[in-house]
From TrEMBL:
Residues 163-439 form the SAM-dependent methyltransferase TRM5/TYW2-type domain. InterPro entries: MeTrfase_TRM5/TYW2, SAM-dependent_MTases_sf, TRM5-TYW2-like_MTfase, TRM5/TYW2-like_N, tRNA_Gua_MeTrfase_euk. Monomer. Its main location: mitochondrion. Belongs to the class I-like SAM-binding methyltransferase superfamily. TRM5/TYW2 family. Belongs to the TRM5 / TYW2 family. GO terms for molecular function: tRNA (guanine(37)-N1)-methyltransferase activity. It comes from Bactrocera dorsalis (Oriental fruit fly). This is tRNA (guanine(37)-N1)-methyltransferase. Its EC number is 2.1.1.228.
C-alpha cells in the first residue's frame, strides 16, 4: 500500500516537472527578487512583499539527508530566515511512513534533475522521482535590507549605497532624491540591522565648530548615547553632541600602530579619544585636548573606562592655546631632561577643514632664550600628523602644498609621509601629511610677508567655498 502510494506520488511529480521544465529554462534572475509592484513604495507595507515562487526540491529520507546534503551544499537556496532543509513527513505511530526531509534548491542553479550531481545521488538511491517543484511564498523577512532598497527605490538613480553604524545608531547621509523614502528606509533598517534602535540622517554639512553631525531622527528612539568598539577599544559618548566617524577607524589604527610604550602623543583635536585612548592604553604618555566641553567630558570618561588615565592628561581649550601652554612646556621639560631619542614624539592634528591653519604656531615656537639652551644639540623632534582636505586633480600634491603654504616653509627631508585617508566627495580627498619639526621651523618666526600671503590665500579659498555653496 505504502509502495503504491509512493509510486503514484512520484509519477505525479514527474508529470509536474515535465510540464514546468520549459518554464524553468526561461526563468530570469528576478525570480528571487521582491515583487516588481513594490517599486516606489513610500510607506512600508510588509505584506506587499509576499511572492509565490516555484522552487526545485529534493525529497530524501531523513536517514540519508546527512549524506545528500554535502553533495548539494553549493546548490542550496540561501535566503534570509529561510531554512533550506525542512522536515517533510514525520514517521507515524505505526512507523510505516519513513520520516522525510525536503531540501530547497536554488532555482537559478538547478533548472532540472540534470543540474544535480546525479551519479553520486543515484548511488544513495536518490532518483529523478525525488526531485520536484513546489510553491513557496517568499516574504519581507526573506530579503536583506539592501535587496529591499534595490526593489523599492527609484531604479535609474543612485540607491542607498552605504551607512555608518555607531553602537545602536545607524547614521545615513541621504541624497535629496531619497528623502521621500526616508521613513521607509528607517523602518527597514530598524527591522533588518541587528541591534539597531535608532536611525538618523545627516541634516546638514558639518560646518559647526565642534564638528558634530546635525542629526534628524527618522526612525526609532531619540537615544544618542552610544557604546561602540573601535579596534578593540570601547568608547562611550553622545553621538548628537560630539564628533565620531567610524570611517576613520583604519586611520586611527595606523597611528596607534606607529606608537610604542613610553612614546609621547600630543593630540590637539582629540574628540572623544580615538587616538589618545588607544595610545594611553599602550602606555604612551598622552596630552589630549578638545575645545568641545562635551567631547572633553567623554574623553575623560573613555580614559577612565579604559583604565588608562594614569597615562593621559586631558585639556579643554583651543588647539593653539594647548600647543603653546601645554605642549611646549612638556616638550621643553623632556628636551632638558634628555635630548637623545630613545622614544618618539607625535602630534596629531585631526581637524581636516582647518588644522593646517594652526601650523604657524610651530614657527618660532621657541623664543631666542629657549632656542639658545638647545643650540647645536640634536633634539628629539616631534612628528606632526596634520590632516587636511584637498580638492582638485592631483590631490596628493595639493595636500603637500597646503601644508607648506600654511607652514611658510617647504617640506624637504623632514617629510615622512603623505597618506591618503579617504575620499570625501568627488575630487575631494582627506590626507594625512606627516612631517618632522626642525630647528628651522621651531626657531624662525613666520615672516610678515609670508603671513600676509597665507591670509590672502585663506580668504580666497573661503570665498571660493562660499560661492560653491551659493551655486549649489
Ligand atoms: C574632526 S574631529 C576629530 C576628532 C578625533 N581626533 C577623531 O579622529 O575622530 C575634530 C575635533 O576638533 C575639535 N575642535 C574644533 N575646533 C577646535 C579648536 N579650535 N581647538 C581644539 N579642538 C577643536 C572638535 O570639537 C572635534 O572634536
Amino acid at each position: 500500500m505504502v509502495v503504491l502510494r509512493r509510486l503514484t506520488w512520484a509519477h505525479d511529480l514527474l508529470q509536474q516537472f515535465k510540464r514546468q521544465r520549459h518554464y524553468w529554462r526561461n526563468m530570469d534572475s528576478s525570480l528571487l527578487e521582491p515583487p516588481a509592484s513594490v517599486r516606489g513604495m513610500l510607506e512600508l507595507q510588509r505584506d506587499a512583499f509576499k511572492k509565490p515562487v516555484q522552487l526545485p526540491r529534493l525529497r530524501v529520507p531523513e536517514t540519508d539527508s546527512n549524506k545528500v546534503l554535502p553533495l548539494v551544499k553549493k546548490l542550496l537556496l540561501k535566503m534570509e530566515r529561510l531554512r533550506p532543509v525542512r522536515v517533510l513527513e514525520k514517521s507515524n505511530e505505526d512507523g510505516d511512513v519513513a520520516p522525510m526531509r525536503e531540501i530547497l534548491l536554488h532555482p537559478l542553479a538547478v533548472k532540472s534533475w540534470d543540474c544535480l550531481p546525479t551519479t553520486e545521488l543515484l548511488k544513495l538511491k536518490v532518483e529523478p522521482s525525488n526531485f520536484y517543484y513546489n510553491e513557496l511564498v517568499l516574504n519581507y523577512d526573506n530579503w536583506r535590507a539592501d535587496e529591499i532598497f534595490k526593489s523599492v527605490l527609484p531604479a535609474g538613480d543612485e540607491g542607498l549605497t552605504s551607512y555608518s553604524r555607531i553602537g545602536h545608531i545607524v547614521h545615513l547621509n541621504l541624497r535629496d532624491h531619497l528623502l521621500p523614502y526616508k521613513t521607509l528606509i528607517g523602518q527597514v533598517l530598524l527591522d533588518k540591522v541587528p541591534g539597531c534602535r535608532t536611525v538618523v540622517n545627516k541634516a546638514a554639512t558639518i560646518d559647526n565648530t565642534y564638528r558634530n553631525f546635525q542629526l534628524e531622527l527618522i526612525c526609532g528612539e531619540a537615544q544618542y548615547q552610544v557604546e561602540t568598539k573601535e579596534n578593540g577599544v570601547l568608547f562611550e559618548f553622545d553621538f548628537s553632541r560630539v564628533y565620531w566617524n567610524p570611517r576613520l577607524s583604519t586611520e586611527h589604527e595606523r597611528i596607534t600602530k606607529m606608537l610604542n610604550a613610553n612614546d609621547v602623543l600630543y593630540d590637539v583635536f582629540a574628540g572623544v579619544g580615538p587616538f589618545s585612548v588607544p595610545a594611553a592604553r599602550k602606555k604612551c604618555w598622552v596630552l589630549a585636548n578638545d575645545l568641545n566641553p562635551e567631547s572633553f567630558k567623554w574623553l575623560q570618561h573613555n580614559g577612565k573606562r579604559n583604565k588608562c588615565l594614569t597615562h593621559m592628561k586631558t585639556f579643554n581649550k583651543d588647539g593653539r592655546q594647548f600647543l603653546l601652554e601645554d605642549v611646549k612646556p612638556d616638550l621643553l621639560k623632556r628636551w632638558k631632561e634628555k635630548t637623545t631619542a630613545d622614544y618618539s614624539i607625535h602630534i596629531t592634528m585631526n581637524l581636516p577643514a582647518m588644522a593646517v591653519e594652526f601650523l604657524d604656531a610651530f614657527r618660532g615656537f621657541l623664543n631666542e632664550e629657549e632656542a639658545k639652551d638647545f643650540l647645536n644639540q640634536q633634539l628629539n623632534y616631534p612628528t606632526v600628523h596634520v590632516y587636511c582636505f584637498a580638492k582638485g586633480e592631483d590631490t596628493k600634491t595639493l595636500a603637500r602644498a597646503l601644508v607648506e603654504d600654511n607652514l611658510g616653509l617647504s617640506l624637504t627631508d623632514n617629510l615622512e609621509d603623505i597618506n591618503f585617508v579617504r575620499n570625501v566627495a568627488p575630487n575631494k580627498d582627506m590626507y594625512r601629511v606627516s612631517f618632522r619639526l626642525t630647528n628651522e621651523i621651531l626657531t624662525t618666526p613666520i615672516a610678515k610677508k609670508t603671513a600676509e600671503e597665507i591670509q590672502r590665500k585663506r580668504a580666497a579659498s573661503e570665498l571660493e567655498e562660499d560661492s560653491n555653496i551659493a551655486n549649489k
